[in-house]
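Worked example 2:
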Amino acid sequence: MNKLICRKCRHEISNEFGTTLAYCTNCGAGIQNLTSEKPFAFGNAPTPVSPKFTGRDSPSNSKIPRIFLGCLGLGGILLSVAGFFGYSYWSGEHPLAKFTNRYNCTIAGEPQPKTPEEYVNRARKHIEDFSGDCAFSALNEAIRLDPNNADALRLRGYAYRLEKKYELALADYNKLIQIEPNNRDNFYARRDLYEAQELFDKAIEDQTTILNFILQDDSADNIKLIEGFMKRVELYEKKGDFENAVKDYSEAIRLNPESERHYYNRAEAYRKLGKNDLADADMKKIDELLAAKEGKKSTSSPSQTTQNQVPLKAISGGVLNGKAVELPQPAYPPAARAVRATGQVSVLVVVDETGNILSASAVTGHPLLRSAAVQAARQAKFAPTIINGKTVKVSGVITYNFSP
């Protein structure tokens, strides 16, 4: 009985009938791979003999192998592409996602949205229901259907900012400004985003653009201009640039020379710059304004007051928190809590001769926190201030700190 060994699979083949074998009965290798060698031990395998092709049987001259290899190459490419798309889909980064509706949320009793506008409205309802994921999904679908939908970009950018996904928010705001370059609301949104990231130079650039819009469209509206300058002042001060802050305070005073609040703010900025003489001049101006508002003319100063005279103006008392007999704390406004507004608010007050608050106005702090601070300040009580045996008015500042 002849025993042959397949060089390819090393299987021992028994030719029991003594016939001529044309292939390995185990793996199907051709006859050229069969040998009468003995089985080898592991590690001593003989080098396989590659089949030799000549003439027309050579792969280089055979049409069939070339076509077959070409099909294999194309098939491999298709399989690779399919694998990439499949992986990307399940990993959440499907390249065709922009062609696919991936909004799967519902609201009871309402039909599914179809247009970009309907998806934006649906997103607003999800926000009201505190369904953040569904809101994002609806906004994504609105933008998929209409990449230039300004309402969807604005709302999604704001939502990203609240989630502190600043890069995504900035991308939406930048696209929004490209679409609507003359809409100042877009610059308000991006300014607030830069401020949240403490990118004050960029925030100041956007606030300057907003001021230019106001000057072009509402040049006669001093209130809007003053608000614009005060916002830029806030950014300058956060950056530590008190020189430019003083310039904007001066613009606000030019627009409203009767506001003691602007003089007080400029005085504080002057003190930061070490210009105490200019700060004192602004505080003196405050006293004159307060006296004028009471219908009295300021004709003397505390240093000129005799024992028989009552000063016509309020004396400066500085920060008054520690001198209060009663100092109610302000409530945290819901609107301020919703946007996580925090920080200190300073309220300029005048205390009358009996220790009650005569007037109060917020001079620094987040706009959403100021009203609550002023209301609390008006409830404060102080012991009467006596100079030369007479009770006098006192001007000063009450500060409040807001935190969530």
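The two ends are 94 Å apart (CA to CA). The first strand starts at residue 2 and ends at 6.
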